[in-house]
Design a protein that fits this description.
Order of helices and strands: HEEEHEHEHHEEHEEHEHEHEEEHHEEEEH
Number of domains: 3
Shape: globular
Distance between the termini: 50 Å
Largest sheet: 11 strands, mixed
Number of strands: 18
CATH topology of the largest domain: Alkaline Phosphatase, subunit A
CATH class of the largest domain: Alpha Beta
CATH superfamily of the largest domain: Alkaline Phosphatase, subunit A
CATH architecture of the largest domain: 3-Layer(aba) Sandwich
Radius of gyration: 25 Å
Length: 509
């Protein structure tokens, strides 16, 4: 039974004795020699009318199973875009990119205006999402080698506990669809980190160019699938060494929808990490050439379609009122790729930097009946998903430092959330910290420009409420704020234990 129908059930049941039918507010059950056949189902819920119906049918000698109590473990779906900017969606203010499904998701759910990835590039941000910990704690970051490459030997350490592993302790079926980028060797792939199923690319779609493809930027703008050979993996095996990237979004979406339908009767966790809009950009023929925003808009239109397919499946399978769906991005837009690089809206800089445009990303939470439609201005992080989902599933948090916090009071409107300062890392180096509305930059550097790091003493200080574009340094007027931030940084650093990096060592690809 779907949730909307349950909500409409009548409080009372009107029965005509001797009739072969039972009518409830215009809905009918027909009695047959095989038992009970519902017409225009759904009909019966866990409400008291369901109990009365069970008693009535029992008196007639007809078999009837009382409806189960509502499950306490919600399904959890995390949809993760790659290099999507803060300003790239219609619901975040883009004037020409059309994203009707994400806009509807935001209207029906909670849209965060200050939602953050834990890192400025792919590998560390994904490690943080799945573990609830800054990547400096797991070794999934490096100052020179900022992400895992196609010849890296490392990956997410086995002693790290992922959200998938945690949810499996509560009986969840788990699947990962899309870009992984936490280690491509078999021992590092999703099936070794708590996922029952996996289908996707092991790293970014540009990391294995064809030997005969042009060098430099030309190949990123050529829209030639034969220039790229990043493999498609199922489980731990390569099933297509040269997939058609124009069909990736559709392939992923079909896999995700199939998983939801197959596991609709038990709690499930789906981590759906899109390959796009990371360059090179590709869209299927259905969407190619349709957006006023060019190829980038085409790609986002198809990504938006994919989100719509997931939400429509959740609705049609009657799962909406017991399914949390979250949409976000791993970092900001890759601005150096011009019109293929997206927008950070009013924020400064983009991917690769610790300015707001590099790490503040869209954050949309959808759960009909539980999360009320609203816009949330409190800060939240992708690392918060780990403790929040653990609480919702009734799982015990592991005994180790966690950097995310349970944000369910924000989601359900039951209270506020206390957190210490948020740390902005570039690689393994702390560049900035935010406490309340104040952000202090200790080091600044563009995401991918030729400039080197610039150290600031005293740190640059910005009020992100008054100045989200980080233009006006307020350090001279707010020394006490800088002192509070310094204390928070000292507490954070005292909690760190040195670990070896996973990003430096290499093997043959």
């Amino acid at each position: 039974m779907d949730d909307a129908s349950q909500a409409r059930l009548s409080d009372r049941i009107r029965v005509t004795v001797g009739s072969p039918r039972l009518r409830t507010r215009g809905r009918i059950i027909t009695f047959t020699r095989h038992g009970v056949r519902p017409m225009n189902w759904p009909l019966v819920s866990q409400f008291r009318d369901g109990a009365r119906l069970a008693i009535f049918l029992s008196c007639l000698g007809l078999g009837f199973a009382a409806p189960a109590a509502p499950r306490s473990r919600p399904n959890i779906v995390i949809i993760y875009a790659d290099d999507l900017g803060y300003g790239d969606l219609g619901c975040y203010g883009h004037p020409t990119i059309r994203t009707p499904n994400l806009d509807r998701m935001a209207t029906e759910g909670m849209r965060f205006t200050e939602f953050y990835s834990a890192a400025e590039v792919c590998t560390p941000s994904r490690a943080a999402l799945l573990t609830g910990r800054y990547p400096v704690r797991s070794g999934m970051c490096h100052d020179q080698f900022r992400v895992l490459r196609n010849n890296s030997s490392g990956g997410l350490p086995k002693d790290e506990i992922t959200l998938a592993e945690l949810l499996k302790t509560r009986g969840y079926a788990t699947a990962m669809v899309g870009k992984w980028h936490l280690g491509h060797r078999p021992e590092h792939l999703p099936p070794h980190h708590g996922f029952d199923e996996y289908r996707g690319l092991p790293y970014s779609n540009d990391m294995q160019p064809s030997p005969d493809s042009p060098k430099g930027r030309e190949r990123f703008f050529a829209e030639r699938n034969d220039y790229w050979q990043t493999p498609l993996i199922q489980g731990t095996n390569v099933v297509n060494p040269h997939p058609d990237q124009r069909q990736l979004t559709r392939d992923y979406t079909e896999t995700a929808v199939r998983f939801i339908r197959q596991h609709k009767r038990s709690p499930f966790f789906l981590y759906f990490a899109h390959t796009f809009p990371h360059v090179p950009l590709f869209a299927s023929g259905t969407f190619r050439g349709k957006s006023a925003a060019g190829l980038y808009g085409d790609v986002l239109a198809e990504l938006d379609w994919s989100v719509g397919q997931v939400l429509d499946t959740v609705r049609s399978e009657g799962l909406a009122r017991r399914t949390l769906v979250v949409f976000s991005s791993d970092n900001g837009p890759w601005l150096v790729y011009d019109q293929h690089g997206g927008s950070a809206g009013p924020l400064r800089e983009g991917k690769g930097s610790t300015w707001e445009g590099g790490m503040r990303v869209p954050g949309i939470f959808w759960w009909p009946g539980r999360i009320q439609p609203s816009v949330q201005h409190e800060m939240a992080l992708t690392m918060d998903l780990f403790p929040t989902c653990a609480r919702l599933a009734g799982a015990t948090l592991p005994d180790r430092p966690l950097d995310g916090v349970d944000i369910s009071p924000l989601l359900f409107g039951t209270g506020t959330v206390e957190r210490d300062a948020f740390m902005y890392y570039r690689g393994a180096t702390l560049y900035a910290a935010r406490l309340g509305p104040w952000k202090a930059h200790f080091i600044t550097r563009s995401g991918y420009g030729p400039d080197g790091p610039s150290t600031h003493n005293p740190p640059w200080l910005f009020h992100l409420g008054e100045d989200p574009g980080e233009k006006w340094d307020r350090a001279a007027q707010q020394p006490e704020v800088l002192a509070r931030i310094a204390d928070a940084v000292a507490r954070h650093r005292a909690s760190l234990v040195p670990v070896p990096t996973q990003l430096a060592e290499t093997v043959n690809p």
